[in-house]
Every structure is written in C-alpha cells, then in structure tokens.
Amino acid sequence: MEEHVNFLTRIFQRKLAATPMVFFRYLYPEIDWNDTLIGLKGPKGCGKTTLLLQHIKKTFKGSCLDKVLYISLDNLWFATHDLIELVEYVYTHGVTHLFIDEIHYYKQWKALLKNLHDDYPGLQVVYTGSSMLQLGSSEADLSRRLTMYEMRGLSFREYLEYENILAVQALSLDDVLQNHVDFAMSVCEQIKVLEHFKKYLEVGYYPFYKQVHHGYYQRIESIVNQILEVDYPNIEEVMVSTIRKTRKLLMIIAERVPQLPKMNELYKELETDRNQGLKMLYALQRGGLLQLLGGNAKRVDDLSRPDKIYLGNPTLMHALTPRVDTGTLRETFFMNQLSLAHEVHYPAAGDFLVDRKHLFEVGGKSKTFDQIKDIPDSYLAVDNTEIGRKNRIPLWLFGFLY
C-alpha cells in the first residue's frame, strides 16, 4: 500500500504546486475550516478543486503537509483499488486531514461519509461533489455531522478582481437598493464598466476561461456532457434513455429560448410524461444547467411546473444557444446572481419578486415603470446604463452581490 500512497501523493503534490494563490473565491472566508466534516458542492468547472488546494497550500506548511492527503475519485486508480483500505492505511500512518474531490464517483457516498466520520476519530474530511448531490430526509443523522456549502461560478465582481481590473468588497442587496448611485459613480470613475460587463456575460462565469482561450465554449459543452453522462447516473438511478431525453430537453430549451413551448407539447416531443419531464427539469437545475422560476417557495423537491425556464448562467447561454436573445440574457444574469442568497419568485406583475418583497423589472436603458407603476418596493434593473437614478438601478450592479 505504501507504493500506492506514494503514487497518489505525487499527483497531489503536482496539483498543489500548480495551484495559484493570488485570487480566492467569495466562499473561501465563509467556510469554517475547523469543522470535522465539510462538504462543498457546485456546478462542474466553478473552481471547487482550486479552492480545496488553496486551503491546503495556505494552511499546511512544511512537515504539517505530511498529515494531509488529497485524492480525486475520478482517478483511474480507484477503479481497481479500495478507498476504505486506503483510508485505513493513511489514518494509521499519521494522516489527520483527508480531502476528497469528486465524491459523487463513489456510489455509496453518504454511507462513506458517515463511516469516515464515525470510525476514524480525529480525521477531518473535506470533500467536493456535483451540485446534484442531495441529502434526503432519511439522511438526517448525516446532516447533523455535515456542514455543506454551495459554490457558484464567478460573479461580475469576482470577474473584475480575477482580471486585475477592480477589487471591491461584495455588496448586500440593501446596499444596492439604497446606495447604488454612489457606488456606481465610484466604479465608473475607475473603469469602463459596460465594456467589461459585456465580456463577463460572454465568457466570465467559469474561471477556467483563462486556461482554455481557444475552444472555451467546446469545453463548456464537454462539461455539460459530463454532468449528464457521469454526474447524473452516478447520483441518481437513471436509464440511458433518460439521459438521452434529458440532453434533448436541455437542447430544446436552449434553442427555443425565450419562446418556450407549452409543457405538454414539450413532454410529447420527448416521448415522456409530465412526472418524468419535471424530474428531468429539476435534475438539470440541480446540475447548474437550468434555472427554474416559479411562483411558489424555492424547494428542490417541489416538482411543480415552473413559470419560466432559463439556462443556468449567461456564459452557458453563449455556449449552447444558437442566437442569444438580449432580453433573456439580462434576465438570466439577474436570476443567476440573485438566487444564490435570496428567494426569487415569479410575480403577478414584473419579472422577479425577490424575498417576497422587492419587485424587479429587467430591461434596456429605455425601460419604463409602466408595467410595475404604483407597486411599492418596485425597481428597474436597467442594462447599458453606467449610473442609475432613484429606483432605476444599473443591471451590472447586481453582479456585486457575492
């Protein structure tokens, strides 16, 4: 076993040496790294692995690194070797911190985590997994042990810092609503914000855009395929025919945005029924590929018909959509940025109701209040505008919420 551990350690060391330490994601300071069982889930390509390796590189120096092992379960080594046998060996040889990447490749990942927590006292386990990972009501015992965090792609604020264009702290929604004029002025004094915002919408959501350059959208398409063909069947019991229908569903939505077909017609085209169709929709949402907007409270297990369907983020739109509709792009960005920390619902009037209080209409610079006039706490999120006025807020500012 020692030879195998040395092999895995060399892979770990190479990855650690190549890990940049200049830019840290918004989630890094929010994680309590002292917890004994920490989960980090999120869409593939959003930077979870880098965050783990940054923490290791920053925290464990010199001989302390000998107490750490990082492994990724998508490594072919695990196709012919037992994970528990590996953990048993390294635990008895001094490892106190185990970092597991891509845990959804392990079929019984929930049982694995429970066993690691209960059977290896003093062992800290930190893992990453697909955003599809869920703990059901039957796993209440595990949820008491586990601290779970969810990660998104880059916000517009993070993109500016990542590009060394502008570094500022994140804003609360109240900051944006009450002080947007002053903040927008301070930003526009320093940069041409609309130029950078346009670029962000095209390429800025997935941090790996800096490494790929050519073929970036093809890389995103590969990630979509991996989510559907690897993550989905590893986490849920689905047939090959269901995977095929789910891919077709995603591409139908991508091609017809913003003119979505009636749901019954969509199910007929997929040769499926309402229940199976909704399950596929919500699976795509959990995978970070769709955003479903409904009038009810945001619940993963509530398989109600959505009122609106968006692709997961603006960059994904550019990768999958034959023609990017400007209005839908704006709404996709708004929902993507707000839904991380706020409840977003479909209102009777306007485009989005946030936290059951703030009503938003999203549009271009000529957008008026006609559709939401006389409604309290109503705002316009306006594109192609550097600085707003009163309840007219530049759309780009909502990219500073995390």
Keywords:
2 domains; alpha/beta; 402 residues; Rossmann fold; 5-stranded mixed β-sheet
Structure explained in plain terms:
This protein has 15 helices and 12 strands. With 402 residues, the protein is α/β, with parallel strands linked by helices. The chain folds into 2 domains: 2-150, 3-Layer(aba) Sandwich (Rossmann fold); 157-400, no CATH class. A hairpin with a 3-residue loop joins β9 and β10. α8 packs across α14 and α10 (216-235) crosses α14 (314-320). The longest helix is centred in the middle third of the chain and has 20 residues, at 216-235. Mean pLDDT is 94; it is low at 297-301.
Determine Rg (CA atoms, Å): 22 Å
Give the spatial strand order of the biggest sheet.
2-3-4-1-5
> What share of residues is helical?
40-55%
Q: What is the straight-line distance between the termini?
A: 44 Å
Number of domains: 2
Mean pLDDT, all residues: 94
Shape estimate: globular
User: Got a strand count?
Assistant: 12
Layout of secondary structure:
Layout: H1 2-17, E1 37-42, H2 48-59, E2 68-72, H3 83-92, E3 97-101, H4 109-119, E4 124-130, H5 140-145, E5 147-150, H6 156-162, H7 173-188, H8 193-203, H9 209-212, H10 216-235, H11 240-256, H12 263-270, H13 274-286, E6 290-293, E7 308-311, H14 314-320, H15 326-338, E8 344-345, E9 352-354, E10 358-363, E11 378-382, E12 392-394
Parallel strand pairs: 1-4, 1-5, 2-3, 3-4, 10-11, 11-12
Antiparallel strand pairs: 6-7, 8-9, 9-10
Helix pairs in contact: 8-14, 10-14, 11-13
